[in-house]
Amino acid sequence: MKIKSIETFDSGYVCIVRVKTDDGQEGIGQIAPYHSNISALVLHQQISRHALGKDADLIEELGELIIRAEHKYPGSYVCRALGGLDTALWDLKGKRLNKSVCELLGGDRRPIDVYGSSMKRDISPEDEADRLKRLQDKHGYNAFKFRIGKSFGNDVDVFNGRTEQIIPAVRKALGDNTLLYADANSGFTPARAIEVGRLLEQHGIVHYEEPCPYPWLEWTKQVADALDVAVAGGEQDTDLAQFQRMISMRAVDVVQPDICYIGGLSRALEVARMAEEAGMACTPHAANLSMVTVFTMHMVAAIPNAGPFMEFCVESIPWAEELFTSSFEVRDGKVMIPDGPGWGVTVRPEWLEKAHYRISQLQ
What we know:
Blueprint lengths: L2 E8 L4 E7 L4 E6 L4 H16 L7 H11 L6 H22 L3 H4 L6 E7 L7 H15 L3 E5 L14 H13 L4 E5 L6 H13 L4 E3 L7 H10 L3 E4 L6 H9 L5 E2 L3 H4 L2 H13 L3 E2 L8 H10 L9 E4 L4 H4 L12 E3 L12 H6 L1 E6 L2
Helix pairs in contact: 1-3, 2-3, 5-6, 7-8, 9-11
């Protein structure tokens, strides 16, 4: 069963990948959202030549072969492109064996506990607290994540005092029984990150994400060593060696690979395995309702060291809402893994028809 063709359907925001084999089977996957046209070009120009003609069942081996072959181009775009291929091959395998991906991994299709993940910083603390409370009342969320600091802000907040205001505001609105996560998106130097971390601890926040610029593991380790709140990170990282360093030096307490950023499910599973061996939790990053959320559902249903809640975006994103023939619904703080083999989702034919199409195939 050899890979015969690799097709991409690109909107500029997101790119769907379809892989077909010489015996007529096919699977769909996705490249990481945003600037997806660049990743699609990398897939056709640098990835497809290593994949065409290869055994479609050797998913992990093929991914590592490609990373080695493209060693002069390490980093985000190669991994984003590889993720499209890898996730399509997992879907293909599931469909061929008539199993969901989580079943292929030894898990089972079940409801997944999720935390409502806010993507907003351009909102007042009071409005954010009220908004999250309304979402809790409607969907039954038992956990939420909100934003503090400013993304890569170097101790600069969105407005002066916002971080100090939003932490108690959200806690007051949601009560003591709601688990709260806070995301700084690389916003602070160590001293400021520790100061904010103390405030998070005072209000019972249980998860402190990316307190310092993510490349600086030594800074993040200073924060993790100084605080009791669990420090999390890894969403931006694509190098397995960097994850090994992160885990070995205990720079974080929770690792957060993003399946689409890191190069697919296979490489995300390798990070989860590293973390498990070190006794650490793995809570993958899944910041929008494209296929990355579907991939993550299957992953957390199968790994033994998944965190108690999976990330689930609460924002309305028009381009994501147009992707699938079905939609996700949170009930009692849970989402259901889609039914059916592979990933269990179908991309709307009309979306595919409008997307920019390209194919690489065996001659």
